[in-house]
Amino acid sequence: PIDISYGIMQIKITVQDSKIVDVQAVQYPNSGKSGQLNAGAIATLRQETLSAQSASINGVSGASYTSYGFYKSLVSAIAKSGL
Q1: How far apart are CA 49 and CA 21, in angstroms?
Q2: What per-residue string of b and e applies to 52-74 under the rule 16 or more CB within 10 Å gives b?
Q3: Contact present, 41 and 26 (Cβ < 8 Å)
Q4: Which of 22, 28, 56 has the alpha carbon at shortest distance from 42?
Q5: What is the DSSP letter of 7?
Q6: Percentage of the chain surpassing pLDDT 90?
Q7: Per the confidence metrics, is the pTM higher than 0.85?
Q8: CB atoms within 10 A of CB 17
Q9: Rounded distance between C-alpha atoms, residue 13 and residue 77, angstroms
Q10: Facing residues of 19 across strands?
Q11: What's the CA gap between 64 and 58, in Å, rounded?
Q12: What is the largest CA-CA distance in the chain?
């Protein structure tokens, strides 16, 4: 889990045959305005991850903390998966 100032961000990946087949935000700030913004940003970051098959993704404009937390947690998840 990564502390992103507004709460905790934790990403989980599912790997099959050395390919990232799913990305889920297990934990993220999801209340109020941050929650609305984060839901959209996480969907975009998830799609970028699945396309890139790595942590080489772009941040989402207006969601800097979320993008950073997603990226840091993603890097950790990928390292733990052995990819």
Answers
A1: 10
A2: eeebebebbeebebbbebbbbbb
A3: no
A4: 28
A5: S
A6: 65
A7: yes
A8: 5
A9: 7
A10: 16
A11: 10
A12: 38
